[in-house]
Design brief:
The chain contains 15 helices and 15 strands. By secondary structure, it is α/β, with parallel strands linked by helices. The strands form three sheets. The chain has a seven-stranded parallel sheet, sandwiched between helices. Helix 14 links the parallel strand 13 and strand 14.
Length: about 350
């Protein structure tokens, strides 16, 4: 079935003259779909990938694996999104791999530099600014395979998501607030998680009528992600599940370091390699494993905090969806009860089958 789906997708690319968005679930073989379609393409090609794929030379290895015509391969230039600023020439075809990575700056760098534009992604973002970029580029979906379609066709594993709703601590004053007085003297006081959350939210409500509250909302997002209650829940889970292979998505590098052996932009790859080689069972990350990684025999994905991004949430969940017979991937998402986080999670999971999502109150 996977091979048949790949053939259908490749044909859809050719039928649309290599213009549009290939929207296909993780692990469906988007790279192979594109490679198969290129067998008939004549002209220069620029293949744009994220840093991880560029570093690991994933596309060249796939080109070799699937034996694309050498004449076509010679016409392919490969760069990462960060290098688009150096783009000089025009190409017959630009391929935007993981198009959710595309930024406003990238848009300006490629405009007028292509004849045909093909993009691929596993999840269409719910970010309006991203969608506007796609519209300005004339990108429309030409083939679609959802995560749940991929489950039905046994391309990815079945999955079950538990939303663990927890209350904010309203009794212990364990949140330290530091401020500076008019005399430029630093002082501090302690408050509860709930009191601090209510203060931030009330300030957003008070100010939103007459000023931009973007940074206050970002601070609230960070505050919810760093809650001590969340960390305590995760710590207890890890202690009680030492033999399970668990990948923990944290809200900051500091939090990742507190909870487990970690891998992020401030570490080397020792812990990552140990986790991939099954020498350790728990690994805490922030964003480093969001995309382009295959992790074998993963038991649980544990997500401490969420924003409303469909791309980020589905990509994280996707780390556990490698198909295995009779395997059901377990995903646990922590949600601060009676806060804005509930709405964020609902928005992030809107494209997934609701029958696979269960709410638990702890």
């Amino acid at each position: 079935m996977k091979e048949q789906i790949q053939k259908q997708a490749s044909q859809a690319i050719r039928d649309n003259n290599f213009n549009g968005i290939l929207l296909a679930s993780m692990r469906s073989g988007k790279t192979k779909m594109i490679i198969d379609s290129l067998s008939t393409f004549k002209g220069s090609i620029l293949w744009v990938v994220d840093k991880t794929k560029a570093r690991d030379e994933q596309v060249p290895s796939e080109l070799k694996k699937w034996k694309l015509n050498s004449t076509v391969v010679k016409n392919i230039d490969l760069i990462c999104y960060q290098s688009l600023k150096n783009l000089g020439r025009t190409y017959d075809l630009i391929i935007l791999d993981e198009v959710q990575t595309l930024s406003e700056a990238n848009y300006n760098q490629i405009v007028g530099k292509y004849i045909n534009l093909l993009a691929c992604t596993g999840t269409l973002p719910n970010n309006r600014n991203k969608l506007k970029l796609y519209d300005k580029l004339g990108l429309k979906i030409i083939y679609s395979l959802s995560v749940d379609d991929a489950v039905i066709n046994k391309i990815v594993s079945k999955y079950h998501i538990e939303i663990w709703n927890h209350k904010l601590n309203s009794s212990d004053k364990n949140v330290e607030i530091t401020y500076t007085t008019k005399d430029k003297v630093k002082k501090n006081f302690f408050t509860t998680e709930l009191e601090r959350y209510n203060y931030i939210s009330n300030r957003i409500d008070e100010l939103s009528a007459y000023q931009d509250t973007k940074f206050l909302k970002i601070n609230r997002l960070r505050y919810i992600g760093a809650l001590k209650t969340k960390e305590n829940i995760v710590s207890d889970y890890l202690v009680n599940n030492q033999n399970k292979r668990v990948l923990i998505f944290c809200s900051s590098k500091e939090q990742a370091d507190r909870l487990s052996l970690s891998y992020h932009s401030g570490t080397n790859e020792d812990c990552l390699n140990a986790f991939m080689n099954k020498q350790i069972n728990h690994l805490a990350v922030v964003k480093m494993l969001n995309t382009s990684w295959t992790i074998h025999d993963l038991d649980t994905i544990l997500i401490l905090s969420s924003n409303s991004s469909k791309v980020e949430s589905v990509q994280r969940i996707g780390r556990s969806l490698m198909f295995k017979k009779n395997h059901i991937a377990q995903i646990i998402m922590l949600c601060a009860y009676e806060t804005v986080e509930k709405g964020w999670i609902e928005a992030a999971l809107t494209d997934l089958d609701k029958s696979n999502i269960n709410y638990v109150y702890i």
